[in-house]
Amino acid sequence: MTSPHPETVDEPAETTAPARRAPVWRGQGPAVAVVAVGGAAGASARYGAALLWPARAGGFPWTTFWVNVAGCFVIGVFMVLITEVWAPHPLVRPFFGTGVLGGFTTFSTYAVDIQRLIDEGHPRTALAYLAATLLAALAAVWAAVALTRRVSARWGTGREAS
Amino acid sequence: MNWVLVILGGTVGAPLRYLTDRAVQSRHDSGFPWGTFTVNVVGCLVLGTLTGAATAGAASSHLQLLLGTGLCGALTTYSTFSYETLRLAESGARAQAALNAIASVTAGLGAAFVGVTVAQAIWA
């Protein structure tokens, strides 16, 4: 890994090192297309969840909370699988990690929900939601990564170092 | 119709995040996830503005589905944010991990408040 960055979800799928820095758009057509399809699917799933479990006015936004926590758990499992266990097709990561899970989880609704709760006179619910989402999301991704590593080690499916 | 709007918004929002992240990350060499930070804060500002406009009666429910649920929902991400925070912590950059979490929430919330306030000043 020559990248100075820690492994990010959006890391380019191809590892060919260009002699000079190429424009970020170059050769991104297929990745952009699968991210778009994944994003549409993820956003639809979140919208469907909001229709199934509508938020109560002034109440704790449970649906967005669980959508975000579930998405964080799944990305933990997914990233360990595709970086430490299997070497999938280069478009799997932009499609599912960047597109589906990125489209499913939301940071903007989280922030505006907090703003709305404060505005409507529920500062304690707002603070509880702010802290609970952050802590549960980080705990979920940490637990998912640890659990997936443990299971893959037990099954001996870890990719051999080359 | 409602689903079509959400799907359209998601189709645009997710690639916008992907390309913004690549553009931002290619411009600096630090390990800090500025790309995700940028889209999350910008998305909070846009959704805040939209929410303020909707409260003032200047944004329809269709626009909210297209730009709010679809575009801003897909533009911003909690899963990538938390994964990148974990990666920072795992790589030993614990202070940066904590900074990313605190700064993202603070700046996102601030952007949402600014958006709502500006929208209400314009349309109310």
From TrEMBL, chain A:
Domain of life: Bacteria
GO biological process: cellular detoxification of fluoride
Membrane-spanning intervals of the chain: 31-53, 65-83, 126-145
GO CC, alphabetical: plasma membrane
Localization annotation: Cell membrane
Region (Disordered): 1-22
Name this protein carries in UniProt: Fluoride-specific ion channel FluC
Organism: Streptomyces liliiviolaceus
Automatic annotation (TrEMBL), chain B:
Its membrane topology: Multi-pass membrane protein
Family statement: Belongs to the fluoride channel Fluc/FEX (TC 1.A.43) family.
UniProt-annotated location(s): Cell membrane
Swiss-Prot/TrEMBL catalytic activity: fluoride(in) = fluoride(out)
Residues annotated as binding Na(+): G73, T76
Membrane-spanning intervals of the chain: 37-56, 63-81, 101-123
Swiss-Prot/TrEMBL keywords: Cell membrane, Ion channel, Ion transport, Membrane, Metal-binding, Sodium, Transmembrane, Transmembrane helix, Transport
Keyword Ligase among record annotations: no
GO BP field: cellular detoxification of fluoride
Protein name: Fluoride-specific ion channel FluC
GO cellular component terms listed in the entry, alphabetical order: plasma membrane
Principal localisation: membrane
One Pfam family matching this protein: CRCB
Function description: Fluoride-specific ion channel. Important for reducing fluoride concentration in the cell, thus reducing its toxicity.
GO molecular function: fluoride channel activity; metal ion binding
Notes on how activity is controlled: Na(+) is not transported, but it plays an essential structural role and its presence is essential for fluoride channel function.
